[in-house]
Amino acid sequence: MTKSDRARLHDQTLARGPGGTLHQTAPEGTQPLTTAQGGPVADDQNTLKAGARGPALIEDFHFREKLFHFDHERIPERVVHARGYGAHGYFETYDTLSEYTCADIFQRAGEITPVFVRFSTVAGSKGSVDLARDARGFAVKFYTQEGNWDLVGNNIPVFFIQDAIKFPDIIHAVKPEPDRGFPQAQSAHDNFWDFISLTPESMHMIMWVMSDRAIPRSFRFMEGFGVHTFRLLDAQGKSTFVKFLWKPKLGLQSVMWSEAVKINGADPDFHRRDLWNAIGSGDFPEWELCLQLFDQDFADGFEFDILDPTKLIPEEILKPVPVGRLVLDRMPDNFFAETEQVAFMTQNVPPGIDFSDDPLLQGRNFSYLDTQLKRLGSPNFTHIPINAPKCPFAHFQRDGHMAMRNPKGRANYQPNSWQEGPREDPARGHLSHATPADGPKQRLRPESFADHYSQARQFYQSQTATEQNHIADALIFELSKCETPVIRERMVAHLLNIDAPLAGKVADRLGIAAMPEPADSAVPLRDLPASPALSIERNGPDSFAGRKLGVLVCDGVDATLLQELSDALHEEGATLEIVAPKIGGVTASDGSRIPAMHMVEGGPSVLFDAVALVLTAEGAARLAQEAPARDFVRDAFAHCKFIAHSPGAAALLKAAGIDPAADEGIIALEPGTSAGFVAACRPLRLWSREGAGKP
Ligand code: HDE
After folding, report:
1. Which residue intervals are annotated with compositional bias (Basic and acidic residues) in the record (predicted)?
2. CB 369 within 8 A of CB 382
3. Structural domain of residue 570, as residue ranges?
């Protein structure tokens, strides 16, 4: 058979295979399919067989290579922070910080440094849901001119444990229980609360994790924290202690727990989708990097040990100074190559940034390198583009699995006599702060780490009444999932040291008949002043920008009103999504076709920050018969959302059992009132509806 005969046969087989299957013909100009070795592939639809119905032949190298590669596509997921989502962007330095640090990134006003950021949950596996109650990772890789700087933080400024040696225990305890393999991405189970109730140092972090901080509305509306105390070093080696904080430009926002549960069902990728949509539509999220800078005198005078990662320095005591902004403006081209393969490491610091002796940080500096070898499989993981520095670099590390950069020449060591290869430079390289370190080898927790309750109490007392109620509800829910009564009681004993009325409420709702004694505390508890900076509600936005309105419409919807609403939202920097009885959309009053983003069953109101019912009387009467439409309104009301309703929507409100005059969060929408409604949505929720009242 000649080559052209073969090609003809190939065309026929592709058009209609011998078995009658139809195959797509390749569009004009398509690149030919090849094997990984570059060999052109004639048939990618059928394995090589002995006869049409015969056994497959092992000779089929294309089939073997294709399946071999597929079988090895997965790499181990991260042992913690497995579920994450990343984006590219840049960091802009506001002004020189040369007074404090010689780090190149902080030398020049207006300096732009490329970054890659990965947000994550901690406990769940890669395929788990976004709205788990959990801390969120906030890891930033700055590609500076003097090497990569990884600020691997969380959205909570403190941690569960004081010493890295306890990390495997806390993580084992929160992960699915090993005998039964569940629950997934949840702390509401015995093992977690058993460990916590036996670990008093975790109490401060527990208050944060039970607060709404652990169920953020979006990555875009959460703070980030470096947690540990670090050091900045100036050109002369002078050290200043520093804590790193990220403040979101759009303010803080979380969802309610009863909402989180439903969001997980309606859209398990809620946070991913939010970031994807925001960046895709050009609404680039932004944070300010703020520093809490202090010296040894401040550290000596501060009431807690600045090396203790279960403590924070209240912003009212030490004001964070904004030093630059982070903007995320580009999604990865390939999730696996970038978000999955990115390797963050706390030990990646450029000259001018150094570590403190925080025992958690010291342990992390060991763990992050170790874990990359397991996950990425080769010491050459820095050859992967997302991990490679973007500044010039040169070293003698070589060979190993999958080495992609293979230097030429004779010298693979230094010093050498061949005038080849790089040399170290004491004038530019990273120097450690010459902290004196001497002492007997021992396994001891410092006395200065002993107060486990005072800052937990301060956090609770800094919350608004609504937020305090949410913390109590979260504790009650989580502990109600513990099957072992003694664990619940031990937790109540700890809560007695944090806030007695809170302990009482939790004990009552759990049905604990006799109040336990308060847990032992190694040191007397202190009453610290409230810190308003710790409240989400007090640090919300003053605009509806970046938020989303869900608009329920029907055929005959008032086109002018809809346009007005859309314009008002656009003006505010917010967006709108249309929810309709059918995904095919509706025909508006002016005959125009309005496409829908969701049908009612697929677009529950938990997906939106506020809702509007723009309906005709006939449409509302029809929707009133449908449970998902009634739930749409009922849920919005139960979640304290602002609800706008056109005159025609009355029947649906009535069917949902909602009195339009119930409160000021239910707003009549008529021509000319859209801007007023959008402005009314700025507080995001009408918390007084929940019965807690405002502070
Ligand atoms: Fe991590 N942590 N961690 N952690 N961590 C990891 O490194 C570890 C801690 C944080 O998006 C792992 O590459 C130890 C605190 C984030 O890729 C691992 C201790 C904080 C991420 C690891 C801590 C974090 C990780 C797993 C106690 C907030 C995800 C995969 C001493 C300041 C980064 C990996 C990403 C990931 C170890 C505690 C934040 C195993 C031993 C405190 C955001 O190395």
Report:
1. 1-13
2. no
3. 541-690
pLDDT digits (tens, 9 = 90+) for 278-323: 999 999 999 999 999 999 999 999 999 999 999 999 999 999 999 9
Of 339-343, 506-510, 512-516, 691-695, where does mean pLDDT reach its minimum? 691-695
- Interface predicted TM-score (ipTM) of this complex, two decimals: 0.98
3-state secondary structure of 24: coil
| Pairing outcome for strands 586-587 and 224-225 | unpaired
Q: What's the whole-model pTM score? A: 0.96
Mutate to test the pocket of ligand 1, among 136, 244, 368 (most ligand atoms within 8 A of CB): 368
| Alpha carbon of 279 to ligand 1 centroid (Å) | 26
DSSP letter at 126? Answer: T
- Is 574 in the same domain as 470? no
Q: How far is the centre of ligand 1, averaged over its atoms, from the C-alpha of 164 (Å)?
A: 11
167 is in an annotated binding site: yes
pLDDT, position 693: 39
Percent of all residues in the chain with a pLDDT value above 70, rounded to a whole number: 96
Q: At residue 16, what are phi and psi to the nearest 5 degrees?
A: -150, 105
Q: Residue 586 is part of a domain; what is its CATH number?
A: 3.40.50.880
User: Is 375 annotated for ligand binding?
Assistant: yes
Q: Of 506, 537, 568, which residue constitutes the final position of a domain? A: 537
> What is the Cα 462 distance to its own chain's centre?
24
Q: Is 65 exposed, middle or buried (0-12, 13-18, 19+ CB in 10 A)?
A: middle
Clarify whether residues 498 and 598 are in a common domain: no
Nearest-angstrom CA–CA distance, 445 and 447 = 7
Indicate whether 598 pLDDT > 60: yes
Q: Examine the domain organization and report whether 528 and 548 are in the same domain.
A: no
Q: Mean pLDDT throughout 574-579? A: 98
Residue 17 has pLDDT above 70, yes or no: no
C-beta separation of 678 from 646 below 8 A: no
pLDDT given for residue 315 in this prediction:
98
* CA distances from residue 654 to 81, 182, 611, 622, 645 in whole angstroms, order as listed: 45, 42, 16, 13, 12
Q: Does the CA dihedral 261-265-267-269 come out positive or negative?
A: positive
154 is catalytic: yes
Ligand 1 atom nearest to CA at 363: 31
3 state SS for 412-447? CCCCCCCCCCCCCCCCCCCCCCCCCCCCCCCCCCCH
Averaged over 582-593, what is the pLDDT?
98
8 A C-beta contact, residue 560 and residue 671: yes
- Considering the domain architecture, whether residues 620 and 676 belong to the same structural domain is answered as yes
Task: Give the CATH number, domain containing residue 276.
Answer: 2.40.180.10
Claim to verify: residue 371 and residue 223 sit in the same structural domain:
yes
The residue from 503, 537, 571 where one domain ends is 537
Residue 15's pLDDT is what? 47
Which stretch of DSSP H or E encloses residue 65? helix 61-71
Residues 498 and 622 in one domain: no
Query: Any idea what the CATH number is for the domain that residue 490 is in?
Result: 1.20.1370.20
Percentage of residues in the chain having pLDDT higher than 90: 94
**618 in Cβ contact with 625 (< 8 Å):** no
Total domains, the chain: 3
pLDDT in tens, 213-235: 999 999 999 999 999 999 999 99
Determine phi and psi for 563, rounding to 5 degrees.
-65, -40
Counting DSSP H helices and E strands in the chain, the numbers are: 19, 18
- Who lines ligand 1 at CB under 6 A? 78-81, 84, 118, 120, 137, 139, 152-154, 159, 164, 167, 227, 342-344, 360, 363-364, 367-368, 371
